[in-house]
Amino acid sequence: MIVYPVRRSITPYVRFVAVLVALYVATLLVFWLAARPTAVDMGIMAAVGAVAIAAVGAVGFAAYRMRLIYRLPRVGGVSIAAFLLAALLILLTVWIGAQLLFIESYDVTVAVVLMLLAAGIVLAIGYLQSLVLSEKIEALHSAAEQLTLGRYHVRVELEDGDELTRLAGVLNGMAAKLEVADRKERQLERLRRDLTAWIAYDLRVPLLSARTMVESIAEGLVTDPEMFNRYLRIARRDINVLSDLIDDLNDMAQVDVTGIRLERTPARIADLIEITVEELAQTAAQKDVKLTARCEPNIPPISIDVRQISRVLNNLVGDAIQRVPKGGSVKLNAYPARNGALIEITDTYEGVRPEDIMTTFKLFFGEDDVRSQTQETPRLRLALADVVVRAHGSQIRPQRMGDQGLRLVFALTRDGAGANPLKRGM
Question: What pLDDT was estimated at residue 225?
Answer without folding.
Answer: 84
